[in-house]
Structure formats: C-alpha cells, structure tokens
Amino acid sequence: MRTMWRLATLFLVPLAAFGWSSADLIETKQAERLKGRIVRENPKQLVLRTPYGELTLPRTAIKKHTRATYVVELKNGSKLEGQVVGEADGSLALNVGGKPRQVPLADVKSVTEKQPPARPKVLSPQEFFKLHRAVLAHFEKKDYAAALATCEKILQSLPDEATTLYNAACACARRGGKPKALDYLRKAVEAGFLDFVHIEKDPDLESLRGEPAYRELFAKKAEYIERVSKKTIDRLSAELKKKGIATKQYRSLFDRERNFVYFHPKSDEEIAAIRRSLEAYADCQWRDLFQNKPQRPLFIVLLTAADSPKVFRRGVGGMFNPAAMTLFCSDMPAHKLLRMSVVIHEFTHALHHADMGARHQRHPIWLVEGLATLFESSDRNGTVVPRHNHRLAFAQQAAREGRLLSWAALMKLNHVQFMLRAQLAYAQARYMLFYMHEKGLLKRFYDEYTARENYAKDRSAIDSFQVVFGKPIEEVERDWRAWLLEQQVPPVPFLGVQTEDKDGQVVVVKVVPGAPAAKAGIQANDRLVAVAGQPLGSRGDLLEAVATCKVGEDTEVELLRGDKKLTVKARLARRPGTTPRTPHAPPYLGLAVQQQDGAVVIQGGGPRLARAESRPESRRRAPGVRRQEANLRARLPGCAARQEARAEGPCQDQARRRHPHRHRRAGPPARTTVTRLPSR
Questions:
Q1: Complete domains list, the chain, with CATH
Q2: pLDDT grade, residue 665 (50/70/90)?
Q3: So what's the pLDDT on residue 483?
Q4: What does the buried/exposed string (b/e) look like for 70-91 if buried means 16 or more CB atoms within 10 Å of the residue's CB?
Q5: Counting CB atoms within 10 angstroms of each CB, which of 72, 400, 410, 527 has the fewest?
Q6: In whole angstroms, what is the distance from residue 19 CA to residue 74 CA?
Q7: Angstrom distance (rounded) from CA 594 to CA 226
Q8: Contacts of 506 (CB under 8 A, 6+ apart)
C-alpha cells in the first residue's frame, strides 16, 4: 500500500499533494473525467473536492463513478477498509462493506489508499504454448507437483482457461488432493470443458469417481452445457457487435439432441429449413461414414451476406474453428451459382473433427479437405450423394497438362505443402474420394484407415487405399486418371452483364459482346428489375436468380430503360472459364485455406489473422518451400503459414493436448479452416 495522507495533512494541505491519480474518478455524460475526493453526496448530487476547488455535480450528469478504496487506521490499532463518502462535523463518513460508518477525526491515526492487486502478466500465445508444453512434459515424467505449479502459473494470467483448469484437476487428483482436484474440475466444466465422455474415461481422474461432487457434475451435465452455451452465445454476440454487426437481429437456437447451437438472423421458416437440411445431412454421415458425434456443443453462426465482409477478410466465405467448436459461414450468391455450399463444407469439417477426436486421431490434410470438398456439392435422398462441381475442370486441366500429383505424393503432403498447391490439391483430393465413393468403397476405406492398428502404422492412408482397391496404388491411379477425363463438368449459367449496385437497383455497366444479354438486347445503363420472376435489389440477387436457371433455358429478364419497363428473353449460355468471379475477390486459391499454430484464430465472434510461434520442426522444409511460402503470404495478407502447428491459444475456449489419454480433451490438434470465395 502507498500512503496517501496523514491525519495532520488530511484536511489542511491542498489536495493537489494527495496524489490525484488514485482519487475517485468521475466520468460525465459529456465525456469529462474528473478526479477528487467526495466531500458530500445525496441522491440528487455530490460534491467533489479537486485540486482546483469543489465541484457540485448533479447525479443526472454522471455516467460512471469509480470509487477508490481506503484503509483507515485508528489510534486504538484497529483498521477499517472502505470508501470515503464525505466529511463533516469533525467526522469521516465511510462506506464499509456496504454499511455507512461515521468515524471521529480525533480517533483517526492515518488514511491510506488500498492499492489494487498487481495485475498478472498477460501471456502471449507463444508463452502460453511453452507453458502448456511444459505441463505435458511434467505429466510424462509423472512430476505432478511441477505440472500443477505450471498450471497455476498459467491460471494467474488466464484464470478461465478451461484446458489448464482441467489439467490442474488431473495433477491434483494424481497427487491425492481430492477436494482441490474436484474444485478445479468444476471450474474447468464451468469454463467450457464439456467433454464429459473424456472426463469419464480419463485415468488421471480415477480417484475422483466415487466422490459425491464428481457424481454431481455428471448429474448436472445438461445444466452445465446449457449455461456454457448461453455464455458462449453472449460472447459471440458481443464480438460480432464490435465488428459493426446489428446483433439484435440474431437469435440463438439449441438442438440438444444433436448438440448443435445456432446463432442466426433467419426467419422461423428459413432456420427450420436449414435445420432440416443440416440435421438430415448429419444423420446420414453418422450412419454412413462417421461413427462419433460431437461431445460438446457445436456453434453454428449463420451470417448474412451483408455481415460476412465485417467478419471475414476479403475473399473469405466461411471458417470452422475446432478449438472453439464454432462454425462461421454465409452461403454467398457466387456459391449458389456454382451449386456448392460453404455451410456443408465447414459442417463436414466439424463432423469429421468430432469423429477424429473420439478416435484420438489426426488425419492428413488431403483427407480432411478431401471429405469437406467431396460433400460441398451433394444431394440428399436418404443418403449423401456427391455431385460434380467446378473443381472437376481444374483436375481435368491438370491431367491434360501433366500437372497432376501422384497419389502417393499428394497423400504425403504436409499442411503447408498442400496449401501451396491449394487449387490443384483441393480438386485432386476431392476427385480421388469422388472416385472411391462412386465405386462404393468410401465407407470401407474410412473404416479400414481409422482402425486403431492401421492408423498407427499408416498415417498417410496409402496402405488402406491399396487394401480397399485390392491392387497397388499406382494401378488405381491409372484407372482414376482415365475415369477423371470421362467426367462432364457441370455447366454454369451465364447471362453476360457487368453490373453495379446503385440506389437499391442493379445497373448494367457493360454487356459482354455476343453474350445472351447482348443477343436479348440488354444495354448499358439498363436497370435490371427481375430475372426468372425473382426481384432484384443487388448484384447478389442477380447471381442467385441466375443460379436457379439452366444453360440453354429461355429466361425472362425485366428491366427499366429510362421510364420504360421492358421484358426480354435471354437464352442462358454456358459460362466461359471455370468459376464466376466474386466482386473485389483475390485470385482463387481453392475453397478452404487452413492455417495452424495460431495463424488464423477466432476471438469471440470472428477471425483475426495473427502470426504464431515457429516450432523447431517447422524449420525443416522441403526445397523451395520457403520461397513459395513467402508467395503464399503475399496472396493471403496477414497469414503466416506454418508447417506443423495448431490454431489454438489463450483466446480460444480450450487448447489441445497431444496425448490421447493423458491431460487432453479427446481430439487432434486443432486446425482452423477458412473458406475462401471463388473468383468471378
């Protein structure tokens, strides 16, 4: 504590000598900040003594009053701790524990301000990971005292870090400290550690199984899940609001049966349709592919097309963050034109991640992105059936130009190497699995690969491929290449106008010569009113309307030319090239971009791009990768590519642990998936 004044100077020395940086702080509604000591106050006003004299402030003018806390030492040796609320008639008015107290000045020996506790050092992500790895190392050595001490060091800076609270519970339980272990475990659950299946199986907590407090946690499982889910929604809402999003239009909806939590701006009819679609998709995948459902809530944030740019960087359409089990996405008009779904792409990541976590596995990047891209364009009629999309054109072009990677080479790519070849790698991974699905072998392959004994010796899945097909992978690849070139790229409808949004109207800026719009007589400066009966208010509406039409179909286009309303018919053509360009989008790199080790993280309601700690193994790179990685960073501003890393940190709800049964929530190290929009 720092002495602020002595009784001899309390009321006699000018208050400027008392240290105004620590006095009461008044913030007015006019944005003024005043420091001083309360002399008198009543329900209508207060009198503040400042270095420049006394000020009388109406209560209605005060926005915030931050009171300093003082320790009043009496001459009899006792002490009172509270706030000074005034002085009059030879006494000091205090608020002690919420109760008023009058102390004669003759009884006061000294008054000192109680200094606030020193703020603990805020750990950087690098410092957090270093300490977290130290915790794991201590557990490996069975040095539970050191593990607990390191956990407590983290908690001084991050008191609500759920994983660290859980690890502290494990360390205490191993040391025999049941009460403290149960307290840490309760705090971990309250902070968001909701993997009750893992808690139930973790051998570190064996000594707690019979304790009443342990059983009470499981008895209140549903209550904890709902409470934490509501806190998470509040946090997401606050973060979205900081980004300029009107969150009042967003609502939450809990699907307790499937452990999904929606946060959305949709109407009741729209969200009901989305729920039916996602639930049917999830049920199909749990029956036909994945065995394990999410053990903690999956948060699905459905953004409007207008709000997406406020959350994502330019060209990004969606993101799944496993550490926070949060999926952010918005089906943009360009996606509908391509007949693909970012929601399904990212949702597949979430389902796959839950299955990997329950199996204590980390699947290769080609399989992670291959499954997400496989089902991004699909139909559902009792089962999920992939459909061709624009990625087929990339794969076929690479095949004709001799640029395809061998299957063995693609399957051995690490994360950075895969991303450096994003456009081709995503397309090739999709069509490898598409071929397998068409042969009826996808489920058999996944089961073969994920069997514990096979996964342990075949991380790339090459052996499982060969077992399922019954022949060497080189022979399978030759058959696949021939099949690939026989497939038909689905046509994308094309009207042939360049437009701009102006005063709530879609104005034609340019008509492509020879395009359907030109043949129909559409001209520059025409205002498009409707296409195929769908009213237009933006370029996005135009893309969505065209997406509902078919190539070769005569489509009605309503427009205004001057004061005249015209209706023309345009026979839509096949879009030249492969993909439509999204307005202001960077060159297309492939649908999903993943960065690990904190390179892309989510804090509250949206992603931010950050540089992460470079781990030692990330320095061992293949020839040419360092230069190519620099090019990747140039194409993805702010992204720091990392080879072996995790998108996790103190800003996440939970950090991953490395070992399947010790001090880790079930699941592989996290990857954050960012979905980029295709070019138009």
A1: 2-113 (2.30.30.100), 125-219 (1.25.40.10), 252-486 (1.10.390), 493-574 (2.30.42.10)
A2: very low
A3: 97
A4: bbbeeeeeeebebebbbbeeeb
A5: 400
A6: 22
A7: 30
A8: 499, 500, 527, 528, 536, 537, 538, 539, 541, 542
